[in-house]
Design goal:
7 helices
């Protein structure tokens, strides 16, 4: 039964990967997506693990439909849960963020300067070694987890790249421990300007 369940999960991930390059023009909301994924993962969390969510009311919608948005946030949260034990704490927060060109270049994906929503997931697990962090997105299907295929990060990257978003993974700054994952998503209001500029052949995009 366990082997069959792993096969189902693997097939679902392959399906997500095959569709992850598609963009959806409808705006999405971060708070409901996080709430649904948090509820879904509660049953998989060890007893005693704490999850703290700090998402302000009234966050602007992002340029990503609810389905791919939930997929990205779900994979990030799953990785945090799997990296932790019963004594760990996972802190999830979100905030508006204005990025300049150097800031945007710090993320993997296709991030442009401008207005974004940043979702941060900080777990107090064992952390990720620097040599491992450098391989996570550079080597397809790289993973350190037994019976995993590394598809979660590939799906996250492809969805964010298609939607002009980005991700970065850092070690928590001392004295904190664990790993910090930051996902940035462009505001939905920014999409029409991007599409219009492309339609008229403007050369000012990204410049």
């Amino acid at each position: 039964a366990k082997v069959g369940q792993r096969g189902i999960v693997f097939t679902q991930q392959l399906h997500q990967l095959s569709r992850s390059g598609q963009t959806r023009p409808q705006p999405g909301s971060v708070a409901p997506a996080l709430a649904k994924e948090d509820l879904r993962l509660r049953g998989a969390m060890p007893a005693g693990m704490k999850v703290r969510v700090d998402v302000p009311a009234g966050l602007a919608p992002v340029a990503m439909d609810a389905v791919p948005l939930q997929t990205v946030l779900g994979h990030v949260l799953e990785n945090a849960v799997e990296a932790c034990d019963a004594s760990s704490v996972i802190t999830v927060s979100a905030r508006p963020l204005e990025l300049n060109a150097p800031d945007a270049a710090a993320y993997l994906g296709r991030v442009s300067p401008g207005s974004h929503i940043e979702v941060t997931v900080h777990d107090t697990g064992s952390g990720i070694k620097p040599e491992v962090r450098s391989k996570l997105f550079a080597e397809p299907f790289f993973t350190t987890k037994v019976r995993h295929r590394g598809l979660g990060l590939a799906i996250i990257y492809r969805i964010l790249h298609a939607h002009r978003g980005g991700v970065r993974i850092d070690a928590a700054a001392p004295p904190e421990v664990g790993t910090v994952v930051r996902v940035v998503l462009p505001l939905a209001a920014a999409r029409p300007a991007i599409v219009q500029a492309a339609r008229h052949g403007s050369s000012s995009i990204g410049g």
